[in-house]
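Example 401, ligand zinc ion.
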Amino acid sequence: MDINSVNIEEIVKQVLAGMNGTAPAAGAGTPAAGIPKTAHVAMLTSLENFEIKEYPIPELGDDDILVKVEGCGVCGTDAHEFRKDPFSLIPVVLGHEGTGEIVKMGKNVKKDSAGKTLAIGDKVVTCMIFKDNPDITMFDLNKQNVGGADVYGLLPDDDMHLNGWFSDYIVIRGGSTVFNVSDLDLYSRVLIEPCAVLIHAVERAKTTGILRFNSRVVVQGCGPIGLICIAVLRTMGIENITAVDGEQKRLDFALQMGATKTVNFKEHKGIEALAGAVESSFGGHLADFAFQCTGSPVAHSNIYKFIRNGGGLCELGFFINGGDATINPHFDICSKEITTVGSWVYTLRDYATTFDFLKRAKGIGLPMDKLITHAFPLEDINEALKTNLRMEGLKIAIINK
Ligand SMILES: [Zn+2]
C-alpha cells in the first residue's frame, strides 16, 4: 500500500473532522487523543514510604512538554533519599533516570537541546534544568559539570507536582534540557543517565594523557557504575581490563561486559597480596590507569598500590560522603608520580556522547540490557527501593505498562 496516499487520507479526514469541531488531537499545542485528565506520581511522603498520588495534568505553557513516562531507573541517590532524606526534600517525587514519549507540546517547542527536531511521539530524556549560570551551557562544552544544577526527580514539590520520573506523566518546563532519543530502545534510554556518569569519568581520565588505546586498566567495584565503566572502556578499544570486587557474581558479569581478568579481593589477605593479584592479572605489570568505583574509603586507600609509577587514577566512587581515607603521600603519590582526577556527574556534551556509546556498546555485543535486573510497576515502588537497599541485582527500574 502506498504510504503517502494513506497519510493524505488521514490528513483529509482530520481537516474534515476539524470543520465539525471534532478534530482528533494532533500537532503542537493541541492535546493529543488519549491524554487523561490526571496523572499519577509516587510521592515520597515519609521515610521509606512512597504513596501513589493523583493530580490534574495542568495546562501547558508555550515552552512546556508533556511526556508520558515509560520508565525510570532507581539511583543510589533515590535509595538515600528513601531511607534518610539527606537533602530534606520530603515530600518529593523522585526519579531522575527517566524516559518517555512526548504526548503534547507548547507551540514554541521545536527542537531539542542538541538541535534535533521534536515532535509528538518522540522519545525523550532530560538532563538538567538551566539556572542563571552562564558557565553551564550546551555550547560552552566541558566548562563546568552539572553538579548543583536542578534535575527532574530531585526538585522540591510545588503546585504542579509532576516533577519527577517516578510517575506516569511529567511536565518538562521551558528552560530544561531535553534530548530526542527515539533511536534508542527503552532499556538503553533508562541507562542513559548512569552511563553519562561514566562517559564523563573516562573523559576526565583522558585529560591525564595516560589512558591510551593499549593501556592496562583496573576497574575497582563492579556495581552498575563499575560495570558500565568497563563497557565504556571496551567501546574505546581498551582490551586489558582487570575488574576488582568481592562478589563473584558481579565479577562474572564484569567479564561479560568486557573485562579480561577479575580479582576477587576476598581471596587475597592483605593489600600486598591483593596488589600482587592485580599485577599478575596483567602478566606481571601494575596498571597504567585505575578507576575507583566503590564508596569505600579502604578501597580508595588500596587502589594506589595497583598503579604503576607514572600511572593515573580517576576517583568517582564517592557520590556521598563515605568518610576519610588514609593514603601515604610519599609512597602513593610523590614517589610514584600518580596523576589523579576526580569525576562528578557529567556535562551536557557527555550526555550527547552517551547516546552514541549505547549504540556502539550494543554494536559490539555488550549485554547492556542485562544491567537492568529488576523491573517493577510504579505501584510497587516501595518494593523496588527496598530491593535496591538490599543490594539485590544491579540496576532496578520502574517500568510503566
Ligand atoms: Zn542518578
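Summary: Residues 297 and 325 are 5 Å apart (CA to CA).
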